[in-house]
Amino acid sequence: MSAHVTRRERCRLCDGRQLELVLPIAASPIADAYVPASRLGEPQERYPLDLYLCRDCGHVQNVDVVDPDVLFRDYIYVTASSLGLVEHYRQYAETVVRQFGLVRDALVVEIGSNDGSLLGFFRERGCRVVGVDPARRIAEEASARGIPTLPEFFGSTLAARIRAEHGGAALVAANNVFAHADDLADIVRGIRELLADDGVFVFEVSYLGDIVDRFLFDTVYHEHVSYHSIAPLDRFFERLGMQLFDVQRIASKGGSIRGFAQRRPEGCRPVSGVVTAMIADERSRGLGEPPIYRDYASAIDERKAAVTRIVDEARTAGRRVAGYGASTTVTTLMWHFDLTQKLDFLADDNPLKQGLYAPRCHLPVVPSEVLYTRRPDMVVILAWNYADPIIKRHQRYLAEGGTFLVPLPEPRLVKAN
Ligand SMILES: [Zn+2]
């Protein structure tokens, strides 16, 4: 095994030892490691991605942890590059300020604050803000733009330092980081330490129930090590002196939750019926037991077989096949569906990705106009969650005889009428 991977022997949430492999996923390179031509000579390793289920608490997780220095230090993802996300954060700040009556000068700390997009909206509303993000360059740029950002990994030690300097936080926010961090217990200990007695911790993560229902297995990648559901989280918070008191379902990333937790026993907000209802629903679905994942794995295999047959037939007939999309989910999907050697290039509409090469397989990423110059016979829409807008935008490609293959949730071919 690679020198950059450590294997966990215990559950990330409950410390239990009964971890069972339930969803094998093909090993892949770091999903966001799209590289410029100057770095094509550098080797890019593949690391395991298999998902394990904790038989003690039901938490689903990766146990093969890639060194965070390898993963996060050169992180190129910048929030402001994603316009939809900035609007999401604006509404998020507005909702949370209103919901918890945050007063002027209230301290808001965000873990994994990236370019400070979310904290900027809290600052506009008069809050004091502190960001924490280990990506040094991004942290420096955020600080330069007036969002003080500590270029460090968050944990109990850093929490104590922030509290000593700024006082207790009315709000601690963590988005994605809560799914990305390996030592989640130390993060929650730090959050408890940092929160004022009546403070609130709010986090957003993809929801395991949606990942299973909506074929979002391509959101499994190395940065993302926890696939959260409510029952294991509820126990986890309780063990660490916190209480999960509310959960909202939100549409981000195809299906996510926004969770709210408070210190126990100091917090006095009542526990919402949604928390107990979701735990009951997860139990009745068997989300904490292996069979649902075995069924899921075979449903994914069926789709992979169908996509493989279509692509192989086209290539055998001498047709040229390309891909559409150059994101983290695309990396997981390409490696799991064994497509890396079968595509000529990847088209993508994000100018930051154009001109780069996909992780390890080094497929070139080109603007989508290239569909009209290189004219591939078939384009696999790897960013299948955006299939509808992509197809709409490229009616001309279809009119000129092209075919789209949408691989998920059900493989389908799209041609001109
Ligand atoms: Zn567990």
Please give the structural blueprint.
Layout: E1 5-7, E2 19-23, E3 51-54, E4 60-62, E5 64-66, H1 68-72, H2 83-99, E6 107-111, H3 117-124, E7 128-132, H4 136-144, E8 149-150, H5 156-166, E9 169-175, H6 177-180, H7 184-194, E10 195-206, H8 208-213, E11 226-227, H9 230-239, E12 242-250, E13 256-263, H10 273-285, H11 291-316, E14 321-324, H12 328-336, E15 346-347, E16 365-366, H13 370-373, E17 378-381, H14 387-393, H15 395-399, E18 403-406, E19 412-414
Helix pairs in contact: 2-3, 5-7
The protein binds zinc ion (ZN).
Keywords:
six-stranded mixed β-sheet; seven-stranded mixed β-sheet; 417 residues; binds zinc ion; Rossmann fold; alpha/beta; 2 domains
Question: What can you see in these coordinates?
Answer:
The protein is an alpha/beta fold. The protein has 2 domains: 79-289, Vaccinia Virus protein VP39 (Rossmann fold, 3-Layer(aba) Sandwich); 304-414, Rossmann fold (3-Layer(aba) Sandwich), CATH 3.40.50.720. The chain is 35% helix and 21% strand. It contains 15 helices and 19 strands. It has helices at 68-72, 83-99, 117-124, 136-144, 156-166, 177-180, 184-194, 208-213, 230-239, 273-285, 291-316, 328-336, 370-373, 387-393, 395-399, and strands spanning 5-7, 19-23, 51-54, 60-62, 64-66, 107-111, 128-132, 149-150, 169-175, 195-206, 226-227, 242-250, 256-263, 321-324, 346-347, 365-366, 378-381, 403-406, 412-414. The chain has a 7-stranded mixed sheet, sandwiched between helices. A 6-stranded mixed sheet has the order 16-15-14-17-18-19. It has a 4-stranded antiparallel sheet with strand order 2-3-4-11. The chain is globular and about 70 Å long. The N and C termini lie far apart (50 Å). The site of zinc ion (ZN) has 8 residues, from loops. Residues 11, 13-14, 16, 54, 56-57, 59 line the site of zinc ion.
